[in-house]
Design brief:
11% strand, 113 residues, 4 helices, single chain, alpha+beta
Length: 113
Amino acid sequence: MICGGMARSHNLKAAGLAVAHGLGRTGGTDGHLLYELGGVVTCAEADTVEEFLDAIRAKKTAVIGRERPLFEKAVMGTAVLPHHLPPYTVPPILQARWEQDLPPGSGSLLRAG
C-alpha cells in the first residue's frame, strides 16, 4: 500500500488496516502536477478495467513506487499553493512574478474572486 503523497508511517498503517480487513493492495501517486503522475502505480495482469478490479479483489496486484521525500512535497506545495489562494492573499509582487512564468495566453494562476 503506497500513497506517494503520504509519509511511510501512514502507508504502513494503511497497509496494516488493509490486511486486517482482507482488502487488496493498491497504490497511487497523489500527484497534483503532471510530472508527478506515475510515481506510484498498481499493477495487475488484466486486459480490461473489470479484470483489473477483479485482480484487486483477489489480492493479485503489485504496487510499485515510493513516497515522495519531504523536500519534494514542500516544493510541490509551493508551486501549487498560489492556485488555491484567493487573489487578495498573495502580495502583488509575487502574483506578477508567477504570471511572468506562464505561457502567453494561459491566464492567471490565481482564481478570480
